[in-house]
Amino acid sequence: MNQDEIEEFDAQPAPTAVEPASTTPEANGRTEPVTTTPAPVATITIEEPDNALPEVTYEDLPETWRQAMARAGWSSLMPVQARAMPYVMAGRDLMVQSRTGSGKTGAFILPILERINPRLEACQALVLVPTRELALQVSSDARVLAGDRGVRVTAVYGGVGYGSQLDAFRQGAHLVVGTPGRVLDHLLRRSLSLEKLQILVFDEADRLLSMGFYPDMREVQRYLPDHRVNGYMFSATFSPNVRRLARLFLHEPDFLGLSSDNIHVVETEHVYYIAPSMDKDRSLVRIIEVENPDNAIIFCNTKARVHYVTVVLQRFGYDADELSADLSQQAREQVLDRVRQGKLRFLIATDVAARGIDIPELSHVIQYEPPEDVELYIHRAGRTGRAGASGEAIMLIDSLERPQLKRISQHYHIDLLERPLPTDADVAAMVAERTTVLLEAKSRSRDKLQTERMHRFLPLVHSLADNEEGVSLLAMLLDDYYQQALHTPPPLPEPEASHERRSSSDRGRSGGGGQKRRRSGDRRR
């Protein structure tokens, strides 16, 4: 990219910071994929543990379950429901990989309702979700399925008052669906007890473990009871990072994977976004913010495009570097060293420059443009979803590149699934949600003296919020904090070896009240 192009990029307006809209499935890019190419109908490939349980059929279900399904408008079981339900009923910890919209919610809600004792007025099942909207959706589905069985369901999430949530706990909510931060707030206030908990579910586990929720989830883990709690994780993807973290929360979990049989890279989800050619750079930034990859290779067809995309991402604050034939051998080795050590988040490269580079734990492959040769598509996409892990292959196309998209789909018989291009409002909502989670977690860690010291700035904050210039200053501080916290992810935490209890005095200082708290690595079974 020459100097004129760089100056032109600098002159373009950045994605605007708008009022955060409600984060909906459409807003965060996790909508039900839509097949837009004439690919064959996909069958389902099942990856099961060696000692797999037999799947259940609709006819096998008790009458109460079939009545619940009728209330929800379900006439049959989805594959993930038929396969996962026996594990939940058997009390075997499980990781379930299945696409968004495949019926995962029903796979755990129906067995949970069966295992809950309505006469025991205590929380017996906890479902952790990443967003307020998903909490409302899952709790609503659970109420419909529960019917008149006497099971009380409540949703808890931030951004609203505590009153109705406290009332639900006082009445003895059996099934709690909530975001980690608000659940932790209630545990700290001792308004929620997990002493009678039997089942813990992580819905959309990939997002829970990549959106800054990890510290809160580890804190929630300290409040789990002494007895064995069955754990289940449901997710569209299980990157190597998510799989490792999952084992900190689950006890010897089995893995159940459902994928389309006609996809050559069976552990990879193949998706595309339609992006205007003149807005592809900004579209890429919005997609990265919504997808939030652990790491990725971004493929371009030319050296000039590689350099341009690298500059764009670096200017936006991402940890990105390029690899092309124009680099000196010393510069190339420096980039490759960062890649080998796992210290580079985004590598931008041409197909030729990326030959021979192996990144075994790559969560995403992003194709800034379709390859000129259809044979290169699988070579690119095949770099993610390796060694039993899952991944995503994302492609950006404009209107002129649609024929190449069709050729790729027909050549490999792949269902290329379209996702709606995130808007600036979608990104603002997602950024606001993540920032709020991080700030709330930071606030909970402050002691009384730090809180007292913080109050010195409250008059200044109110003053700044009253004028446009002051609001810009606050936005600048939040932007700097977000960039530091999210765009430079911390190293993966290792499980703690120690399983010793804290002393009773230490628990008292931590604000746990009468509930037992343990070190992060200690989850007794």
Summarize the helices and strands and which ones pair or pack:
Blueprint: H1 3-11, E1 34-35, E2 44-47, H2 63-72, H3 79-90, E3 94-97, H4 104-115, E4 125-128, H5 132-146, E5 153-156, H6 163-170, E6 175-178, H7 180-189, E7 199-203, H8 205-208, H9 214-221, E8 230-235, H10 240-249, E9 254-260, E10 268-274, H11 280-291, E11 296-299, H12 303-315, E12 320-323, H13 329-340, E13 346-349, E14 364-367, H14 375-381, E15 391-397, H15 402-412, E16 417-418, H16 424-444, H17 448-454, H18 458-464, H19 468-486, H20 504-509
Parallel strand pairs: 3-8, 3-9, 4-6, 4-7, 5-6, 7-8, 10-15, 10-16, 11-13, 11-14, 12-13, 14-15
Antiparallel strand pairs: 1-16, 2-9
Helix pairs in contact: 2-5, 3-4, 4-5, 7-9, 16-19
Descriptive keywords:
alpha/beta; 41% helix; globular; disordered C terminus
Helix content: 40-55%
The tally of strands reads 16
Which regions are unreliable across 5 or more consecutive residues at pLDDT < 50?
1-42, 261-266, 489-493, 495-525
Shape: globular
How are the strands of the largest sheet arranged?
Answer: 1-16-10-15-14-11-13-12
Instruction: Indicate the mean pLDDT.
Output: 80
Task: Give the end-to-end Cα distance, rounded to a whole number of Å.
Answer: 58 Å
Please give the largest β-sheet: 8 strands, mixed
